[in-house]
Amino acid sequence: MAADTPRRILDAAADEFAERGLAGARVDRVAERAGANKQRIYAYFGSKDQLFDRVVEDRIEQLLDAVPFDAADLPGYAVRVLDFNRAHPSLVRLLLWHNLERPGLLAGLPQSVSSHERKVAALREELGEDGWAADRLLDQVLGLVHGVTLQTSGDPERVRADLHRAVSLLVG
Questions:
Q1: Contact 159, 78 (CB under 8 A)
Q2: Which H, E and C letters describe 6-52, residue by residue?
Q3: Of 71, 90, 109, 142, which sits 20 to 30 A from 96 (CA to CA)?
Q4: Which CATH number among 3.30.530.20, 1.10.357.10, 3.30.300.30, 3.40.1000.10 corresponds to the domain 49-171?
């Protein structure tokens, strides 16, 4: 039971932060949801801000595990990220809250940095010297995915097809 306490805390905190953001979240509610005490949460994660950052990193890790990056198929990768985001709406909410309440810090989280660096390196290898700047291309593709993820209307299959086409045109 004690070994799974950090996982229970992260899962409970993810729900709390996704619902209420950093400012509205309460460690007491996280503790209650996780079946842990507040002191244990602080012992594992430090502060509420550090817990929030760790939750976001944990959810990013889940995305990275579920949707491997494919530099040779950016349109397919974009659609797979969209599908993951739709299946896990709390990740999108967490990212939005993080950008609102801790602006600029997401790009500096270790998980984000290493993931971004690996993707850019793979894109550079795939595109060669004549390709678009890999970091800007990655930002554009992810920007499209995130924008489409927030789209609440339209036939989901049509939205997927439109995203695939848009990324295909971008990298074309």
A1: no
A2: HHHHHHHHHHHHHHHHHHHCCHHHHHHHHCCCHHHHHHHHCCHHHHH
A3: 71
A4: 1.10.357.10
Q: What is the pLDDT along the chain (172 residues), one digit of tens a residue?
A: 566 889 999 999 999 999 999 999 999 999 999 999 999 999 999 999 999 999 999 998 898 889 999 999 999 999 999 999 999 989 889 999 999 999 988 888 887 888 888 999 999 998 886 556 888 899 999 999 988 988 878 899 999 999 999 999 988 7
Cβ atoms of 57 and 114 closer than 8 Å: no
Q: What pTM, to 2 d.p., does this model score?
A: 0.85
Do 142 and 167 contact (CB within 8 A), yes or no?
no
Phi-psi label, residue 29: left if phi above 0, alpha if psi -120 to 50, beta otherwise: alpha
52: Cβ contacts below 8 Å, ≥ 6 apart? 13, 17, 22, 25, 98, 101, 102
**In which region does residue 11 sit, left (phi positive, over 0), alpha (psi from -120 to 50) or beta (all else)?**
alpha
Contact 171, 75 (CB under 8 A): yes
Which token pair is 156? 């989901």
Residues sharing a CB contact under 8 Å with residue 30, sequence separation 6 or more, in sequence order = 9, 12, 13, 16, 41, 51
